Predict the structure.
Amino acid sequence: MNLQEQELHYPLGDTLPLPGHTIEVAPGVQWIRMALPFALDHINLWLLRDEIDGRAGWTAVDCCITRDEAKAQWEAVFANALQGLPILRVVVTHMHPDHIGLAHWLCERWNAPLWISATDYNAARMASQSTTGFGGESAARFFASQGLSDPESIEKIRARANYYRAWCRRFRRAFAACWKATCSPSAATDGAASRATGTRPSTSRCSARSWTC
């Protein structure tokens, strides 16, 4: 055990958000914990108090996988934690299916825009619409060529050809993206997260644009 771990302090101890409820971890920051049917059995999601064009509401950060149980958990969160305010936008941090899977549903449910990088959005679209390196025969050959020799492991990879598509089926066609050419690293602190955490927005702001794919 790393002795430095003993210096860590967990202010919430073993307290976890109950299904369909949230825990406020900082002013305007709500923690959601949703169940997953995997060895990694949960995902942490977030609600950030936000305001867009004078309209108060929430930014949802990440979405959970596409399945009815996750939708039911979200509906409970809407009933218990939104304080009568709407979801104003949906931010997806990256393209893993437990983070982007229900983005289409949340956006349609609240008529909210999706915010995601163009790279992650297009990688997710490709993974959900075709056989890619995320699984299947080509992925099995690749792993074998890189030294994976266990037949059982290779067969598991071969069998995962539709794994991504099973948990991430649809995508929002309109999205907002910050391109590297117009978004400096420091600009990433702008927006809802900076307001929620109290960080100072940079003077160089992202150029957010709406795109259709």
